[in-house]
Task: structure prediction
Amino acid sequence: MISRRKLIKRLASLPVLGGMAGSTTLLAESLPSATEAVAKRDLIKELGLRTFINAAGNYTSMTASLMPPEVMETINMASKKYVLLNDVQDKVGEKIAKLCHAEGAMVTAGCWSALVLGMAGVLTGKDAKKAAKLPFLEGTGMKSEVILQKSHANGYHHALTNTGVKLIFIETKEELEAAINEKTAMMWFLNREAPVGKIKHEEWVAIAKKHGIPTMNDIAADVPPVENLWRFNDMGFDLVAISGGKAMAGPQSAGILMGKKHLIEAARISAPPRGGNIGRGQKVNKEEILGMYMALETFINRDHDKIWETWENRVALIDGAIAGIPGISTEVVIPEVANHNPSLKISWEGTQHDFSAKDLGADLRDGDPSIETIDWEEPKSLRLTVFMLEKGQDKIVAKKLKEALTKRTA
Result:
């Protein structure tokens, strides 16, 4: 330990108190103020990062969507003021709930976070002591099982197990009824797999309500159509989780949990700014919360019919550019649920051409400008989407795709 004599000697060498205060002030003044202009730097260029035209889609690995000016202006504005995080969630949650026909809502750190926090809220209610015990459910008196259809188990269901629950897989209505017991905490539905599951939305909700069990629907990438933002709340699901950085073009690391008010309030017991629980890592800042709200409002108010027509025109332009190339066939594909928008599938079946989808994808990726496509679905077909393209990029994609295919089929 430092002796009192040495401490006094060190203090004597420092500036007087006024000087010390001045040094602190100088430190603060050395930082740019919230309103001070700073020199702009292009770190993407500075770091030598590859940029590309996104003809693939809003995949996380490709950094999802580009946020519109309204969202970026909101984020920048929010960064210049201090506010209490709970206050932001309160006010934004009220607005989102009203827009989406829900009793309550909150912004989360992505859709996965919405699943974790929503599940936690179902288990603990508004009991902070219970929240502190997750994910260790044994001996707590909390329910511990979640039922889902086997066809809905495609990886995202693992988010629920963060809370300590056990997953019970069923296929038929009879199996569902038999699986329900005093331990059943929730019935989970993955919207993108609805077409392949044997139990559809309305029946799933009806059975849950008959037994007094909460339901959650994961609709991560399932807008458009815009009506999906409120369709499942209207249908009676107790919780609905969605990604924010996909078609809504909000912050990629944001999402929304909406539904019954008491369950949203319960979910927030495990969410920051609270600590000491499993939700501490699910942090979302004020910029993302406000940016997500602006993205949602902007998305809802778009002319969706006009946008769809624009997408169809882009697909037609690209399709027309490669028409007539020997051995190449095309098909307009619209996914039934997730990423529901027109895309173009380009195929070359048979032995006429021996190149693969990966080969063609690499040609486009390595070109100038670089173009990303969906080259991993089938060995001899490549698919591209147009809803992430900026104005005029459809012409660039058409030109480069024609060049690549002409070279490969020569």
The first strand starts at residue 53 and ends at 54.
